[in-house]
Amino acid sequence: MKDLIKKIHKLDDVKIQKEAKLMAPLTLAYMGDAIFEAYIRNYLITKGDSLVKALHKNAILYVKAKAQAEIVHELEKQLTEEEWGIVKKGRNQKPSSSPKNADMIDYKYATGFESLLGYLFYDGKIERLIEIMEKSVEIINEKNNN
């Protein structure tokens, strides 16, 4: 998965890395959402799940707003000041839509979490991005006893 993320993000693209700090938090969240979804789907497939219905049901446990809010709260003390600042910027954005299956506070923290993932991706911090996603899986697995 790490190699795929590196291929998608051309690490030699310094311009994007410089612009990462200036990107809108919701733009970062848009990419962070896609990266996390792909990471979770790959995790579940490599874990052995094969039926699409089961894959989808299990993926929701990780990618729903409530789970992402739990992840970001659990990780807060492990994040750098810069990383937590990105989470807060994402959290404080006015959502473009209202959440369907989550309360607004969880939705905002989930947006902050996704903003952080998008930021790490565009800033070229791929190792840190993978580390946070791995810890995220551990957090949700512990909560769900998987």
From TrEMBL:
<comment type="function">
    <text>Involved in correct processing of both the 5' and 3' ends of 23S rRNA precursor. Processes 30S rRNA precursor transcript even in absence of ribonuclease 3 (Rnc); Rnc processes 30S rRNA into smaller rRNA precursors.</text>
</comment>
<comment type="similarity">
    <text>Belongs to the MrnC RNase family.</text>
</comment>
<keyword id="KW-0460">Magnesium</keyword>
<dbReference type="InterPro" id="IPR036389">
    <property type="entry name" value="RNase_III_sf"/>
</dbReference>
<keyword id="KW-0540">Nuclease</keyword>
<dbReference type="GO" id="GO:0005737">
    <property type="term" value="C:cytoplasm"/>
</dbReference>
<keyword id="KW-0378">Hydrolase</keyword>
<keyword id="KW-0690">Ribosome biogenesis</keyword>
<keyword id="KW-0963">Cytoplasm</keyword>
<comment type="subunit">
    <text>Homodimer.</text>
</comment>
<dbReference type="InterPro" id="IPR008226">
    <property type="entry name" value="Mini3_fam"/>
</dbReference>
<protein>
    <recommendedName>
        <fullName>Mini-ribonuclease 3</fullName>
        <ecNumber>3.1.26.-</ecNumber>
    </recommendedName>
</protein>
<keyword id="KW-0255">Endonuclease</keyword>
<keyword id="KW-0698">rRNA processing</keyword>
<dbReference type="GO" id="GO:0004525">
    <property type="term" value="F:ribonuclease III activity"/>
</dbReference>
<dbReference type="InterPro" id="IPR000999">
    <property type="entry name" value="RNase_III_dom"/>
</dbReference>
<dbReference type="GO" id="GO:0006364">
    <property type="term" value="P:rRNA processing"/>
</dbReference>
<dbReference type="Pfam" id="PF00636">
    <property type="entry name" value="Ribonuclease_3"/>
</dbReference>
<keyword id="KW-0694">RNA-binding</keyword>
<keyword id="KW-0699">rRNA-binding</keyword>
<feature type="domain" description="RNase III">
    <location>
        <begin position="3"/>
        <end position="145"/>
    </location>
</feature>
<dbReference type="GO" id="GO:0019843">
    <property type="term" value="F:rRNA binding"/>
</dbReference>
<feature type="active site">
    <location>
        <position position="33"/>
    </location>
</feature>
